[in-house]
Design brief:
Helix content: 10-25%
Structural class: alpha+beta
Strand content: 15-25%
Mean pLDDT: 82
Radius of gyration: 27 Å
Distance between the termini: 47 Å
Protein backbone atom coordinates (compact mmCIF):
# COMPACT_ATOMS: atom_id res chain seq x y z
CA UNK A 1 0.00 0.00 0.00
CA UNK A 2 1.76 3.11 -1.27
CA UNK A 3 0.68 6.32 0.54
CA UNK A 4 -1.50 8.60 -1.58
CA UNK A 5 -3.87 11.54 -1.22
CA UNK A 6 -7.67 11.42 -1.32
CA UNK A 7 -7.57 11.57 -5.12
CA UNK A 8 -5.27 8.54 -5.43
CA UNK A 9 -2.11 10.49 -6.31
CA UNK A 10 1.02 8.93 -4.82
CA UNK A 11 2.86 11.03 -2.22
CA UNK A 12 6.62 11.52 -1.89
CA UNK A 13 8.35 9.36 0.75
CA UNK A 14 8.02 10.51 4.37
CA UNK A 15 5.14 12.86 3.59
CA UNK A 16 3.36 13.60 6.89
CA UNK A 17 -0.32 12.67 7.10
CA UNK A 18 -2.92 15.42 6.76
CA UNK A 19 -4.25 16.97 9.97
CA UNK A 20 -7.05 15.13 11.69
CA UNK A 21 -10.56 16.48 11.13
CA UNK A 22 -11.93 18.82 13.75
CA UNK A 23 -14.01 17.20 16.51
CA UNK A 24 -17.68 16.98 15.69
CA UNK A 25 -20.23 19.16 17.37
CA UNK A 26 -20.98 17.57 20.79
CA UNK A 27 -24.66 17.79 19.93
CA UNK A 28 -24.09 15.74 16.77
CA UNK A 29 -22.23 13.11 18.79
CA UNK A 30 -25.38 12.22 20.74
CA UNK A 31 -26.37 8.65 19.83
CA UNK A 32 -30.02 9.62 19.19
CA UNK A 33 -29.37 12.96 17.47
CA UNK A 34 -31.38 14.84 16.29
CA UNK A 35 -33.73 13.32 18.87
CA UNK A 36 -33.17 14.21 22.50
CA UNK A 37 -33.33 10.62 23.74
CA UNK A 38 -34.31 7.10 22.80
CA UNK A 39 -37.81 7.79 24.09
CA UNK A 40 -38.20 10.75 21.71
CA UNK A 41 -37.09 8.61 18.80
CA UNK A 42 -39.46 5.76 19.68
CA UNK A 43 -42.34 8.21 20.07
CA UNK A 44 -41.63 9.70 16.64
CA UNK A 45 -41.45 6.21 15.14
CA UNK A 46 -44.75 5.29 16.78
CA UNK A 47 -46.62 8.42 15.68
CA UNK A 48 -45.16 8.86 12.19
CA UNK A 49 -44.44 5.30 10.99
CA UNK A 50 -46.62 2.91 12.92
CA UNK A 51 -49.78 4.87 13.66
CA UNK A 52 -49.35 7.46 10.86
CA UNK A 53 -51.23 9.89 13.08
CA UNK A 54 -52.55 13.06 11.50
CA UNK A 55 -50.93 16.41 12.26
CA UNK A 56 -54.02 17.63 14.13
CA UNK A 57 -54.13 14.61 16.39
CA UNK A 58 -50.39 14.95 17.09
CA UNK A 59 -51.01 18.56 18.18
CA UNK A 60 -53.84 17.45 20.47
CA UNK A 61 -51.69 14.69 21.96
CA UNK A 62 -48.81 17.10 22.66
CA UNK A 63 -51.27 19.54 24.26
CA UNK A 64 -52.56 16.81 26.60
CA UNK A 65 -48.98 15.68 27.29
CA UNK A 66 -48.01 19.23 28.30
CA UNK A 67 -50.96 19.40 30.69
CA UNK A 68 -49.84 16.20 32.40
CA UNK A 69 -46.18 17.18 32.60
CA UNK A 70 -45.08 19.11 35.71
CA UNK A 71 -43.01 21.49 33.61
CA UNK A 72 -45.66 21.75 30.92
CA UNK A 73 -43.22 20.67 28.23
CA UNK A 74 -44.23 17.92 25.77
CA UNK A 75 -41.68 15.82 23.82
CA UNK A 76 -42.49 17.83 20.65
CA UNK A 77 -44.06 21.29 20.45
CA UNK A 78 -46.27 20.38 17.52
CA UNK A 79 -46.55 18.14 14.51
CA UNK A 80 -44.30 20.58 12.61
CA UNK A 81 -41.60 20.17 15.26
CA UNK A 82 -41.88 16.39 14.97
CA UNK A 83 -41.64 16.48 11.16
CA UNK A 84 -38.68 18.85 11.24
CA UNK A 85 -36.81 16.62 13.70
CA UNK A 86 -37.33 13.65 11.38
CA UNK A 87 -36.08 15.69 8.41
CA UNK A 88 -32.93 16.62 10.38
CA UNK A 89 -31.78 12.99 10.52
CA UNK A 90 -28.32 12.83 8.94
CA UNK A 91 -28.30 11.01 5.62
CA UNK A 92 -24.72 9.88 6.26
CA UNK A 93 -25.86 7.66 9.13
CA UNK A 94 -29.11 6.51 7.59
CA UNK A 95 -30.08 2.92 6.88
CA UNK A 96 -31.37 1.43 3.65
CA UNK A 97 -34.26 -0.90 4.45
CA UNK A 98 -35.79 -3.43 2.10
CA UNK A 99 -38.29 -6.22 2.42
CA UNK A 100 -37.65 -9.80 1.41
CA UNK A 101 -39.65 -13.01 1.34
CA UNK A 102 -39.22 -16.67 0.49
CA UNK A 103 -39.70 -17.90 -3.07
CA UNK A 104 -42.64 -19.98 -1.81
CA UNK A 105 -44.35 -17.05 -0.09
CA UNK A 106 -47.42 -17.33 -2.34
CA UNK A 107 -47.80 -21.06 -1.75
CA UNK A 108 -50.70 -21.53 0.73
CA UNK A 109 -49.30 -24.92 1.76
CA UNK A 110 -45.87 -23.54 2.62
CA UNK A 111 -44.65 -23.26 6.21
CA UNK A 112 -45.73 -20.06 8.02
CA UNK A 113 -42.20 -18.68 8.12
CA UNK A 114 -41.97 -18.98 4.33
CA UNK A 115 -45.13 -16.91 3.91
CA UNK A 116 -43.87 -14.06 6.11
CA UNK A 117 -42.19 -10.87 4.91
CA UNK A 118 -38.90 -9.88 6.54
CA UNK A 119 -37.19 -6.52 6.76
CA UNK A 120 -33.43 -6.18 6.38
CA UNK A 121 -31.62 -2.90 7.06
CA UNK A 122 -28.15 -2.12 5.73
CA UNK A 123 -25.47 0.54 6.04
CA UNK A 124 -23.14 1.56 3.22
CA UNK A 125 -20.34 -1.01 3.45
CA UNK A 126 -17.86 1.21 1.61
CA UNK A 127 -18.33 4.09 4.06
CA UNK A 128 -17.96 1.78 7.06
CA UNK A 129 -14.68 0.36 5.76
CA UNK A 130 -13.45 3.87 4.97
CA UNK A 131 -14.21 4.97 8.53
CA UNK A 132 -12.33 1.98 9.95
CA UNK A 133 -9.22 2.53 7.81
CA UNK A 134 -9.16 6.28 8.56
CA UNK A 135 -9.47 5.77 12.32
CA UNK A 136 -6.26 7.22 13.88
CA UNK A 137 -6.75 5.01 16.93
CA UNK A 138 -5.90 1.94 14.82
CA UNK A 139 -2.69 3.25 13.25
CA UNK A 140 -0.52 0.98 15.43
CA UNK A 141 -2.75 -2.06 14.87
CA UNK A 142 -3.00 -2.34 11.10
CA UNK A 143 -1.05 -4.09 8.33
CA UNK A 144 -0.88 -2.43 4.93
CA UNK A 145 0.51 -5.52 3.21
CA UNK A 146 0.81 -9.28 3.93
CA UNK A 147 3.68 -10.51 6.06
CA UNK A 148 5.57 -13.74 6.57
CA UNK A 149 6.42 -13.97 10.26
CA UNK A 150 9.02 -16.41 11.64
CA UNK A 151 10.03 -17.26 15.19
CA UNK A 152 13.47 -17.50 16.75
CA UNK A 153 13.91 -21.05 15.45
CA UNK A 154 12.80 -20.05 11.94
CA UNK A 155 9.42 -21.66 12.43
CA UNK A 156 6.44 -20.03 10.73
CA UNK A 157 4.25 -17.97 13.06
CA UNK A 158 0.62 -17.06 12.39
CA UNK A 159 -1.15 -14.40 14.42
CA UNK A 160 -3.09 -11.71 12.55
CA UNK A 161 -5.05 -12.23 9.33
CA UNK A 162 -2.39 -10.69 7.09
CA UNK A 163 0.23 -13.19 8.30
CA UNK A 164 -1.69 -16.09 6.72
CA UNK A 165 -1.00 -17.84 3.44
CA UNK A 166 -4.27 -16.76 1.83
CA UNK A 167 -3.52 -13.03 2.05
CA UNK A 168 0.02 -13.58 0.78
CA UNK A 169 -1.13 -15.68 -2.19
CA UNK A 170 -3.89 -13.24 -3.09
CA UNK A 171 -1.47 -10.32 -3.25
CA UNK A 172 0.95 -12.33 -5.38
CA UNK A 173 -1.88 -13.00 -7.82
CA UNK A 174 -3.03 -9.37 -7.88
CA UNK A 175 0.54 -8.13 -8.35
CA UNK A 176 0.66 -9.83 -11.76
CA UNK A 177 -1.38 -6.89 -13.10
CA UNK A 178 0.56 -3.64 -13.24
CA UNK A 179 -2.58 -1.60 -12.59
CA UNK A 180 -2.65 -3.06 -9.06
CA UNK A 181 0.88 -1.99 -8.15
CA UNK A 182 0.88 0.34 -5.16
CA UNK A 183 -2.69 -0.51 -4.20
CA UNK A 184 -3.59 -1.68 -0.70
CA UNK A 185 -5.16 -5.11 -0.35
CA UNK A 186 -8.19 -4.83 1.97
CA UNK A 187 -9.87 -8.19 2.71
CA UNK A 188 -13.46 -7.84 3.96
CA UNK A 189 -14.57 -10.07 6.85
CA UNK A 190 -18.25 -10.51 7.68
CA UNK A 191 -19.74 -12.16 10.75
CA UNK A 192 -23.07 -12.62 12.50
CA UNK A 193 -23.98 -13.36 16.09
CA UNK A 194 -27.63 -13.33 17.14
CA UNK A 195 -26.83 -13.68 20.85
CA UNK A 196 -25.61 -10.08 21.10
CA UNK A 197 -29.10 -8.62 20.72
CA UNK A 198 -31.30 -11.56 21.65
CA UNK A 199 -32.08 -10.25 25.14
CA UNK A 200 -35.03 -7.90 25.79
CA UNK A 201 -35.89 -7.30 22.13
CA UNK A 202 -39.63 -7.60 22.57
CA UNK A 203 -41.50 -9.32 19.80
CA UNK A 204 -38.57 -9.45 17.37
CA UNK A 205 -35.38 -11.40 16.94
CA UNK A 206 -32.49 -9.48 15.41
CA UNK A 207 -29.75 -11.11 13.40
CA UNK A 208 -26.92 -8.54 13.12
CA UNK A 209 -24.26 -8.58 10.40
CA UNK A 210 -20.85 -7.15 11.26
CA UNK A 211 -18.07 -5.98 8.95
CA UNK A 212 -14.35 -5.51 9.50
CA UNK A 213 -11.13 -5.74 7.51
CA UNK A 214 -8.37 -8.31 7.63
CA UNK A 215 -5.78 -5.53 7.90
CA UNK A 216 -6.64 -4.77 11.53
CA UNK A 217 -4.87 -6.82 14.20
CA UNK A 218 -6.76 -9.33 16.31
CA UNK A 219 -6.17 -7.30 19.46
CA UNK A 220 -8.02 -4.34 17.93
CA UNK A 221 -10.90 -6.56 16.83
CA UNK A 222 -11.37 -7.76 20.41
CA UNK A 223 -11.19 -4.23 21.85
CA UNK A 224 -13.63 -1.35 21.54
CA UNK A 225 -11.63 0.65 18.99
CA UNK A 226 -14.28 0.79 16.25
CA UNK A 227 -12.50 -1.88 14.24
CA UNK A 228 -15.80 -3.74 13.84
CA UNK A 229 -18.95 -2.04 12.54
CA UNK A 230 -22.59 -3.02 12.33
CA UNK A 231 -23.33 -3.45 8.62
CA UNK A 232 -26.94 -4.57 8.80
CA UNK A 233 -29.51 -6.65 10.60
CA UNK A 234 -32.43 -8.88 9.79
CA UNK A 235 -35.55 -8.44 11.90
CA UNK A 236 -37.54 -11.65 12.38
CA UNK A 237 -40.94 -11.27 14.11
CA UNK A 238 -41.62 -13.88 16.77
CA UNK A 239 -44.85 -15.81 16.48
CA UNK A 240 -47.14 -15.30 19.45
CA UNK A 241 -48.30 -18.91 19.53
CA UNK A 242 -45.25 -20.84 18.37
CA UNK A 243 -42.50 -21.93 20.74
CA UNK A 244 -39.11 -23.50 20.14
CA UNK A 245 -38.35 -26.46 22.39
CA UNK A 246 -34.94 -28.00 22.96
CA UNK A 247 -33.82 -31.20 24.61
CA UNK A 248 -31.43 -30.24 27.38
CA UNK A 249 -28.90 -32.71 28.77
CA UNK A 250 -27.74 -32.29 32.37
CA UNK A 251 -24.12 -32.41 33.48
CA UNK A 252 -22.38 -32.40 36.84
CA UNK A 253 -18.94 -31.17 37.80
CA UNK A 254 -16.01 -33.50 38.37
CA UNK A 255 -14.23 -32.57 41.57
CA UNK A 256 -14.37 -29.29 43.44
CA UNK A 257 -11.77 -27.34 41.44
CA UNK A 258 -10.60 -26.90 37.83
CA UNK A 259 -8.11 -29.19 36.10
CA UNK A 260 -4.56 -28.33 37.15
CA UNK A 261 -3.22 -28.72 33.60
CA UNK A 262 -5.79 -26.67 31.66
CA UNK A 263 -7.37 -24.45 34.32
CA UNK A 264 -10.81 -25.48 33.05
CA UNK A 265 -13.60 -27.13 34.99
CA UNK A 266 -14.52 -30.70 34.05
CA UNK A 267 -18.04 -32.08 33.79
CA UNK A 268 -19.68 -35.41 33.05
CA UNK A 269 -23.25 -36.39 32.06
CA UNK A 270 -25.76 -36.94 34.87
CA UNK A 271 -27.53 -40.33 35.06
CA UNK A 272 -30.63 -41.41 36.94
CA UNK A 273 -31.02 -44.58 39.05
CA UNK A 274 -31.78 -46.62 35.91
CA UNK A 275 -28.55 -45.57 34.21
CA UNK A 276 -30.29 -43.26 31.72
CA UNK A 277 -29.07 -39.76 30.91
CA UNK A 278 -30.96 -37.01 32.73
CA UNK A 279 -32.62 -34.79 30.13
CA UNK A 280 -35.23 -32.02 30.14
CA UNK A 281 -37.33 -30.34 27.48
CA UNK A 282 -37.18 -26.54 27.80
CA UNK A 283 -38.09 -23.52 25.68
CA UNK A 284 -35.51 -21.35 23.98
CA UNK A 285 -36.32 -18.41 26.26
CA UNK A 286 -34.93 -20.37 29.24
CA UNK A 287 -31.45 -20.60 27.70
CA UNK A 288 -29.26 -17.74 28.92
CA UNK A 289 -25.87 -18.64 27.43
CA UNK A 290 -24.49 -21.54 25.37
CA UNK A 291 -21.62 -23.55 26.86
CA UNK A 292 -18.84 -25.01 24.71
CA UNK A 293 -17.62 -28.45 25.75
CA UNK A 294 -14.32 -30.07 24.78
CA UNK A 295 -14.05 -33.83 25.02
CA UNK A 296 -11.35 -35.07 27.40
CA UNK A 297 -9.17 -37.16 25.13
CA UNK A 298 -7.31 -40.33 26.08
CA UNK A 299 -4.05 -41.69 24.67
CA UNK A 300 -5.72 -43.35 21.66
CA UNK A 301 -6.20 -41.36 18.40
CA UNK A 302 -9.70 -40.61 17.16
CA UNK A 303 -11.03 -42.48 14.10
CA UNK A 304 -10.70 -40.67 10.79
CA UNK A 305 -14.46 -40.69 10.28
CA UNK A 306 -15.10 -39.07 13.68
CA UNK A 307 -17.31 -35.95 13.52
CA UNK A 308 -18.37 -33.34 16.05
CA UNK A 309 -21.86 -34.88 16.21
CA UNK A 310 -20.33 -37.96 17.85
CA UNK A 311 -18.80 -36.00 20.74
CA UNK A 312 -21.58 -36.31 23.34
CA UNK A 313 -21.72 -40.09 23.01
CA UNK A 314 -18.02 -40.75 22.39
CA UNK A 315 -16.65 -38.99 25.46
CA UNK A 316 -17.48 -39.67 29.08
CA UNK A 317 -16.14 -36.36 30.39
CA UNK A 318 -15.64 -32.85 29.04
CA UNK A 319 -13.79 -29.62 29.67
CA UNK A 320 -15.95 -26.48 29.81
CA UNK A 321 -14.25 -24.11 27.37
CA UNK A 322 -13.46 -20.89 29.23
CA UNK A 323 -12.26 -19.09 26.11
CA UNK A 324 -14.94 -19.39 23.39
CA UNK A 325 -17.68 -19.62 26.04
CA UNK A 326 -16.24 -17.02 28.41
CA UNK A 327 -19.57 -15.52 29.59
CA UNK A 328 -21.19 -18.90 30.25
CA UNK A 329 -18.04 -20.02 32.09
CA UNK A 330 -18.11 -16.98 34.37
CA UNK A 331 -21.79 -17.49 35.15
CA UNK A 332 -21.39 -21.16 36.05
CA UNK A 333 -18.05 -21.17 37.82
Amino acid sequence: GTPCDVDGNYLPPKTPPPPLPQPVNPQDAQPWHPFTSQGHFELADFLFCREQMSGGNINDLMHIWAALDEKGKPPFNSHSHLYQTIDDISQENSWDCLEMHHVEANNPNAAPWKQSTYQICLHDAGKLVEQQLSNPGLKEFIDYSPQLVFGENHQRAWSNFMTGNWAWNQCNELAKKEENHGAMFVPIILGSDKTVVSVATGNNEYWPLYITTGNVHNSAHCGHGQAVSLLGFLSVPKSRWQFKFYTFRWFQTIGDKPCQNTGMWMVKPSFDDNGDCVVSVITLDNILRPAHLIGIYGPEPLPRNFTHTDSLTAFSAFYVNRFSGYHAYQLCF
